[in-house]
Design brief:
Largest sheet of chain A: 8 strands, parallel, barrel
Order of helices and strands of chain A: EHEHEHEHEHEHEHEHH
Largest interface: A-B, 39 and 39 residues
Radius of gyration of chain A: 17 Å
Oligomer: homotetramer
Strand order of the largest sheet of chain A: 1-2-3-4-5-6-7-8
Helix content of chain A: 40-55%
Chain lengths: 233, 233, 233, 233
C-alpha cells in the first residue's frame, strides 16, 4: 500500500469547487503545479472526482484530495464513492465535513479510519472552535477551521480566533496540521496566517473569483515561500 | 452542445458498481468495447465518476453513463457532482433513482431536465410497476424497471411482469426505451427478454460475480445480436 | 381497525406549520372546529406530532393529519414516526411529500401502502403537473398540486393551470380528491377554486399571517359552504 | 422560561423506542412514575413525540425527553420538530445523536445551543470513546456512551471500557453526567455500573423485551436506589 504522503510545512491548498470544469480544471491544476515547483512548496489540490486521474497523470507536485468519499468496501453500491477507487485514480487524501457537505459524527470517525487504512490523508473542516476541538479527537491529519464567528469581524479579532483555534487543536494532538482558509483573497493574508503559526493556508473562491486567477495563485504560493524563509530567520 | 446520443435497439447495458476499481475497470470496459464492436451492438456502460474520462478516451463503442449527478449549476459546492463536469469527462448520460441511490420525486424531475438541457441521456430505475408508471411521467429516455415483486417468483410469472411493465411504460410514452436487468445471469435470459419486446437488457452483478466475466459479457452481447437477427426474420 | 374516514366534498384544509405552538395550536384548532360545525363542512387539520392527541380529544369535526410518518413497524427505532403511534394519537391521515419535506419515490409508495394498511388517508403534495401525474400512480386519497409554475403568474393563467392539474389527476384515478392551496389568502379564492371543480381548498400561511386569523378561517370555510350551495343550484 | 431541570444522581433512564405505542406507552410511563416515587429516584423518560404531553400530564416524577428535535425557529416548516413545541408539550430535554438517528457535527452543536436557550437538558449519545470525547466538547448535560467495541466482549473488559469513557468525559467537563445503557438487561448490571462511578444507568430494549417489563423496571430502579445507599456508606 505504501506510506501516507508526508506534507512539508508550510503548505498551500486550493481547489476548484464547481466554479470550473473539464479542461479548465486541468489547465488550472497545471498552473498550480508549476507554482508549486517554482517555489518548492507542497500544494494540496482538491479535485472533482472526474478529474482526479487526469490531474494525477499530468502534474508532478500536487497532493490530490478527493472532495469526499464513502466508507463502503468493494462490492455492491452504485454512485457511492469507493475509497479504493479514488485512491487508485490518484488521490492521496480526502476532505471531510466541508460545510457544503456536512457529515455525521460517526461518518467522520469511520472515514478517517478508512483513510488511515489506505494511507490516505484526512483533511477535516470545522465550523467553530468547539467543532475543531471535537473533530481533533479523531486525529485527522489536517484541520481547516473556518469559524463562522469570523464572518464580518475585523482583521484584529480574526487573528485572535486563528491563534485560538491553532492552540486548542495542537493541545489535543500537536501533530495535526492546521490550515487557515476562511476568506483568503490575497497573498498578504497567506503570509500573515503562516507567520501566525499556521501550518498552511488555502483558497479556492478567493483565487477563482479574482481578476487573474493564475497570477493570484502564484502570488499566494510565493507568499507561503516568503513566510517559510522569514520563519527560518 | 451537439445532440443527444441516439441508441440503436436492441441494446445492452452493464457497469461495475463497486465490485472492481482502478485498472480493472478499464480492462473490463475494453473487453465490453470489443464485444460491442464485434457484434455491432450499442452498449451503455455505467462508470464510477473517477473512471469516466479514461474509459471515454480508451474505448470507441460505449455510451458512458454517470451513476448519478446533482442538479447544481457551475459555482460553489464541494463534493457535488456537477452535470457539466461529468459530461465534459465523457459521460453521455446519467442513471437516476437506482435502488441503491433513491431520489426524491422532485430531484428526479430536475435531473431529467438538466440531462435534457445538456443533451445527456436519462436512464431511470423503478422498483415496481407503480414506480415505473410514475417515473414515466417525466419522460426519461430509458427506464429500467426491476420489480421487487419478481424476487423469488417463477420464470413464467417473471415474463408476465416484464410484459406488463413494458406495456404500461409504452402506454405513457411509446418512445421511452425499456430495459430489463433484474437478476440476469446468462445469455439465454438476455435473448428471451429482448424477444419479449424489450429494447435492451443489462447485467452488472450477473457478469462480475460469474466465473468468467469476460466470457459472460461476450455471451450476453452475442445474444442481443442473435435476438436482433431473429426479430428481423 | 375500522374504516378509512370518508371525506365529504367540498372540504377545507388548514394547519399551523410551525407558526404557532403549544396552547395556541389548540386554540386555533378549536376555532377551526367551531367553523367546521357552523358551516357543516369537513375540515382536514394538519397538526404537529405533539399536538395530535390533544386536538383529537378537544375537537369534534376535524379530520387530523400527521405532517409526515415513517414506514417502520413496531420495534426498534428512536425518533422515527411510527404509523401506529400517530394513528393511536388520533390522526386519521398523513401528509406526504410536502415541498418542505420531500420524499423519495419509493418512500411515497411505501407510505401510501402503510396508510392504506391502517385505514389512514394519504394526502400527497406535488410541485408540478408532471409530479402530480407521477404521484397519482400510487393512488393517494388526496393530491395537493402546488405548481411552482404558478408563482408570479397572473390570476387568469393560474386558473388554467388549476383546471389542467385537476384534469390530469382525475384522468388517472377519478376518485382522487384534488385540493388547491397555493397562495390562498382570502375567501374569494377558496370560492373560485371550488367553483372551478376542485374537491377542496386549503390555507395555512394565508390564515396565520393574516391580520385576524380566526376571522379569516371562518371566512374561508364560509366560502366553501357558499360554493357548495351554488354548485347544487 | 424557568430554569433547566436539575437531575439528582444517581438517576435512571428508560423509554419505549417503537416497541409499544398508544395507551401502552402511557401505562408503561405510569408504572415507571410509581417506581420513581417509591424509590425517590430521578428518572429520565424518552417519549415518542405524540405521547409527550399526555405523559407529562399524567405523571409526577418523570423528566421527559424528546427523542430528537430540529433547530428551526417558529415559522414555516412542516414535519420539522420545533424545539418550542416539544418543550410546550412537556419535554424537559432532548436526545441527540442516537445511533438510530445520527446527526452531523454541526447539528449536534446547534441542537445543544437551542436546548440551552430553552433551558432544556441535552442527552447525547456516542458510539465510541473518540465520539464521546468529541461530543463532550459541546458540553451536553448528559452523555450516553455505548461503545460498539463492547459488543461481544466479556463483562470484565466491559467495565474497563466503562471506566475509561467515564474518565475521558469527566476530564473534559467534570459536570457532564455519564450514563451507561449498553446491553443492560437486569438490576445487577444497573447496580454495578453505578457503583463503578457512573451518574446513571438506562435501559429500554432490556426492559420491554423482558418477560415482565413492569417488574423489571421496578427491579432496575430499586438497584439505582440500592447503589445510592451503598455509595453513601
Amino acid at each position: 500500500m505504501g506510506k501516507k504522503k508526508k506534507i512539508r510545512t508550510p503548505f498551500f491548498e486550493t481547489g476548484v469547487k464547481n466554479y470550473i470544469y473539464g479542461d479548465a480544471v486541468l489547465e488550472y491544476a497545471q498552473v498550480v503545479d508549476k507554482a508549486a515547483e517554482k517555489y518548492d512548496i507542497d500544494v494540496l489540490f482538491i479535485s472533482p472526482y472526474t478529474d482526479i486521474r487526469r490531474i494525477a497523470k499530468s502534474t508532478k507536485n500536487l497532493i490530490i484530495l478527493a472532495p469526499y468519499m464513502d466508507t463502503l468496501r468493494p462490492g455492491r453500491g452504485i454512485a457511492d464513492v469507493l475509497p479504493e477507487a479514488v485512491k487508485a485514480a490518484g488521490a492521496q487524501g480526502v476532505v471531510l465535513n466541508h460545510c457544503e457537505r456536512p457529515m455525521t459524527l460517526n461518518a467522520i470517525e469511520k472515514t478517517i479510519e478508512r483513510a488511515n487504512e489506505l494511507d490516505m490523508l484526512s483533511f477535516a473542516c470545522a465550523d467553530s472552535i468547539s467543532e475543531a476541538k471535537a473533530i481533533s479527537q479523531f486525529h485527522p491529519d489536517i484541520i481547516n477551521p473556518e469559524p463562522t464567528e469570523l464572518i464580518g469581524s475585523t482583521e484584529a479579532s480574526d487573528m485572535s480566533y486563528v491563534v485560538e483555534t491553532l492552540r486548542v487543536i495542537k493541545d489535543i494532538f500537536p501533530d495535526i496540521l492546521v490550515e487557515q482558509a476562511a476568506g483568503i483573497t490575497n497573498g498578504k493574508q497567506v503570509y500573515d496566517f503562516i507567520m501566525a503559526g499556521n501550518d498552511g493556508a488555502g483558497s479556492a473562491s478567493g483565487i477563482l473569483l479574482s481578476e487573474d486567477p493564475f497570477a493570484m495563485v502564484d502570488e499566494m504560493i510565493f507568499n507561503v515561500k516568503k513566510a517559510k524563509k522569514d520563519l527560518k530567520n
